[in-house]
Fold this protein.
Amino acid sequence: MADFTLALSRNGIKDILVTLADRAAGKVNSDPVPLGTSVSYTVSTSWRFEVGDLFFAPMIELNETDFVLDFHFKFRIEVPKIEVGGQTVCFAKPFGEVSCVTLPVITLYDGGVFEFDIGIDGFRSEIEGAIDFQIVHFKPEESDQLDTTIRFFWENRVSNAFAETPEVSDFFAMAMKQGWELRIIPGWMDFDLIDEPGTIAGQFERELSNAITTWGADLSASDRNALLDLSGDLTTLIEGLLDIHDDHDTWILARISELGIVREVAKILSDRLGFFYLVKLLHEQKFPISEDIPFSEDIPPVRFEISNAALTIEPEELRIEVDIKAPDL
Amino acid sequence: MSTPITRFSSFAIVLHENTLNTLIDGFRVQAPRIFNYATPDIFAAIIKDIRESTDGVGTLACDLGPIRANANRRRPLPLNSLFTPVQYLPIPGSQGLQGISYIFQVGRIAFDFHPNTAFRIPFQVADQFTEQSLALRLSICMGIACLDKKYLDDFLENIPPPRLPPDKDKPPKDKPKDEPPKDKPKDEPPRDGPPLDEPFPFTNIDCFCLDVVAVGRLKRRPQSREHEPNEEYLCIELTGIEIVDIEPEGMENSLECLLYLVLNFGVLPRLRMMIADLRFGKVPLSVIMSPVSDDLPNNPAVENDRLFVFLDLN
């Protein structure tokens, strides 16, 4: 065993992923959206990740992790009072008189507000993938990739604002120095759309029809039919919310190709650029003598060197081992 | 494939005793001012001594090790960064401004995590070095620079004389009562001695060095009688201490007892910390020490020359 070891169990890393997934979950509520004069709806959208199985060795593999979208619609339908009668009917009597009768007003429906909810749960996508980690001792003077890297990022940089972002400039400043880098090696990635958009839209349409039939039982047949006609429009609305286009195949292919781009970018960064690191420990670690005494030419910081670093992935544990030595003064 | 370190916890940090000792030694060599203290007069005298020496080390300091190590560096640290200046020790009973000039240096410091491999543990405390124990060896040197005898009279003469008897000290009747009393008696002779606010001149430092070996343990103790796992605190407890080779034996034993009591009941209790407060990282990814159990009876654990700290996500 090395001088200093950090060990992470498979379960511990899964706990971290679950915690991060919980933090990534969220919910948004829309303002009421009118649909005509008497119907409006609000929609709340929530999303969450369900972390699947995690396997170690030889790579770190995450299986069956789902991204789940839930939609909750709340419909409000204001049905006006429906009355018949009240008209005055006049007719001639036999002796030349005209008699008028006001028909009684019969209220067919008192009017009111219907509210009902429809939940579309579990629009589910499955993500799987595997990555490997590698610890590399990076020495700028031995890197034939650094010049290319610098040219790529600094001469062709998108904007000064990007380059001057503290995180970016710190990343590059660290990248130029000798150190031990924990790099990600992309393995494979898979993306499955478990619930097809058509299925979701169909589910929505069924739910809405059931709701209208159940909650709108007191409505006249014509009113119910009018509402049912609306469901077609709402299905289109759902598709819009999901950013699902008419051509489902095109949509799915687009998602997959986006993942492909991500994978390709990660590969380029990993393979061709000399400094794509996740975590970096500088070869030389510096410690101030005290907070009151800043570094200076006369009073340098206390230095230690990381003489070796290694990473081991075993079925139940990931270990990072570091050897530390005092520098030759 | 090795047995997982984390078989009973989510995470673990393991520190070998050699690493800890390397880090401490690195600080001792590279930041000597943390380990070496001297009053300004001794500090100045040591710098003068080094500059006038042929080997760049001199002879005045009690422990020449840090000065020699600095001289051997390719780029030595400036001499004024070798020591931390400290205040003079007051002379008990004296109301003068002078104090005692002294030097205090901490030499080698080494930890040994059970079993014993890093250094020899004296037989007097060896039986205390049981499983889960750790030992600390500390070399300290200190010395007092005493007043050079040839200046004694000058300084003694400079001590203010005793006050006059009380009846002679009363103000005359014709003087107003609200006149402030004078600081010095009228008959105090003028003084030509050395100023009171300067240190005593000295020509040598009487140094001595001691090796101290302390044996102790890291212990989790419940905060209350109702033993709740999350209401424990971590403490360091001293189980044995040995000051190596000082005489007479009775004085050695008494000093050891004094240190044993002061450390166990005065100093170390101040270092106790609630386990719940020992968090690392930021929420939501902060980690906390795993609870002890039948599977994990010690946390932190001291074994195989290493310190193990087992952690779980908070």
In short: The first strand of chain A starts at residue 4 and ends at 9. Chain A has one domain: 4-139+178-325. The mean pLDDT of chain A is 75. Residues 74 and 117 of chain A are 4 Å apart (CA to CA).
